[in-house]
Amino acid sequence: PRSPLNRGWPDVSAEFGDSAVPASDLIFCIHGMGEHFWSQPSQQNAGSPGAFVDSVREFRDLINSNRSDGEGRIECIPIVWANIIHEDDTDLVGRVRDITLRSVPLLRSLANDVAADVMFYQSPIYETKIRKGVISSINDAVNEYMATVDHCGRARPRVSILGHSLGSVIAYDIVKIQDGDDLPPEFRLTSNMDVHVLFLCGSPLPLFLTCRGVGRSDIVPLANCGRVYNVFNPTDPVAYRIEPLIDPDCKAVNAHHVPFYSGGGGVQKHVQVKSAVQSFAESAYESGVTNALIKPVKNLLGFDAEEKKKYSEVVAKIKKLNRSERIDWVLQDSFIESAGEYVAAVASHCKYFGNPDYASFVRDKISSDALGSADESESIEPAESADAITS
């Protein structure tokens, strides 16, 4: 039988999956801004991202759809914090309603339920409330899962956290504060559990860290956390890269492509062509058309070996901080999306949980037990070269 776990609104139930197959991993998925708006019945249409719990259920099914017999089941559990602001605090709800203008009500509602989430999280009072609420939900879910599902003496499932949009900032902050020895109990993850993997998708975290003035050496690694993956759609207007925040030289190195799992792996041809054209355009803008034409020839003949070594060392530095893995990963857009970036950008921020390539990526990275040291001998091509896009 399936065991329901109430999360967020009382009338929303997030089910555990097939409890007859004990999970090897639990992923706690934290939503971003606007969940209160998108979850309203009036917004349930084909053009809406829909309720977060439904997106996570779809994501769970995608992750487990191609699971082999030897692989454990991965359970995805949604963590909804929007009610802390928009429902539980009735005084706040009333004050926001009182100061809201009556004109263009749909846009006002969108602003109050979406953009205001970012402002509230940057307020010390509500930042604390949101963190405490999310940590409490994760701890309750872990304890309830362990009490409900029969693991037949098997090992306790590993715990990973996935944050989308503003949820990625919340997820990072929660993992980051686990470093402190004097952390109050209400901010401590249950049983001082380690976080196997921290996934960030469509993440504005680098912008938040920049605004906070966080030092480059204080971003990663995270104590009690295996690896960090920052995955984004190429046209997502909310997403930012982390690696250049750690080392400015990384701005000249492409984010690594998430393999095209649904098409056999590798990088799609139209993505390769697009990257080559963009590289030429950027090089022409920065150093002139002549240099832009000469540079690929120099790369082909091996004249830029010193430059390649430099970028290889930069990537090795990142991998050393993240247990042999890159941090920044970019999903491959479709041919239609590639041809119309601005049109694709409108929906790209909400498409992660229905993306089979992202689901396969998460499954592969969670299933990997190879958390060794970085392989500093691996090289990488600079972003100016079309070869940089190989997986």
Automatic annotation (TrEMBL):
UniProt xrefs under SMART domains: DDHD
Disordered: region residues: 370-391
UniProt protein name: DDHD domain-containing protein
Gene Ontology CC terms, in alphabetical order: cytoplasm
Lineage: Eukaryota, Sar, Alveolata, Perkinsozoa, Perkinsea
Pfam families the UniProt entry points to: DDHD
Domain DDHD: 191-368
Listed GO MF terms: metal ion binding; phospholipase activity
